[in-house]
Design brief:
With 202 residues, the protein is of the alpha/beta class. 28% of the residues lie in helices and 26% in strands. It is built from five helices and eight strands. An eight-stranded mixed sheet has the order 1-2-4-3-5-6-7-8, sandwiched between helices. A hairpin with a 3-residue loop joins β1 and β2.
Length: 202
């Protein structure tokens, strides 16, 4: 059984931004995973590589996982350039992206995902709501592709702010609360790994 990514990339972008990418080759549907701040492409207890392997094996999707350094720029321009480059090098002429973001990765998706028409669906997990919520609200309101779903554990610090999300005027947007889960889903990592199939792919 596969235990690692097919391709590992270490990229240095402008302003000394360093991002690591892990890629599992698949079809023209790309699941892009943006991890939390300072997170690695593998994640706690290898949760991201396990999700990547599972989705690739079951659906044939291409999986691209991105680290998220503290100094990372806020937009997704660098990440989208990596996806475009990968597709060009692998003769994938048309593609669509399913975005998964956890914590800071979720915030980045919420605030900037609407700018990229290739991103058709987003699953944003425990994205902090306490900082620059006006940007999050604006981004969620402007997303006009297939769907955007936010998930919060009721033990996450942002849970008490989730009522703000009722003010998002966008029929493509929904949010769900999961009882007994904290920011990292440390109570039940298995439940975390099931989130993409439950909320993104269904």
């Amino acid at each position: 059984m596969k235990k690692d990514f097919d391709i590992l990339l270490n990229k240095n972008f402008q302003d000394n931004i360093h991002i690591e990418y892990g890629i599992i080759k698949g079809n023209n549907k790309i699941v892009f995973i943006k991890v939390g701040q300072n997170g690695t492409i593998y994640g706690y207890k290898n949760k991201y590589i396990k999700i990547a392997i599972s989705l690739n094996k079951k659906y044939g999707y291409t999986i691209i996982c991105s680290s998220n350094s503290f100094d990372n720029n806020i937009t997704l321009d660098n990440d989208m350039s990596i996806i475009k480059e990968y597709c060009k090098n692998n003769n994938i002429k048309s593609y669509e992206v399913y975005y998964i973001g956890h914590s800071k990765g979720g915030t980045i998706g919420a605030q900037y995902g609407y700018k990229y028409s290739c991103i058709k669906r987003m699953l944003l997990i425990n994205a902090p709501l306490m900082i620059n919520y006006h940007k999050t609200k604006d981004g969620l309101s402007k997303f006009n592709q297939e769907q955007i779903i936010m998930v919060y554990g009721d033990l996450d610090p942002s849970y008490k702010y989730t009522e703000l999300l009722n003010g998002i005027n966008n029929k493509k947007f929904k949010y769900f609360i999961i009882k007994g889960q904290d920011h990292h889903f440390s109570k039940n990592m298995i439940e975390f790994k099931k989130l993409p199939e439950k909320y993104l792919i269904k």
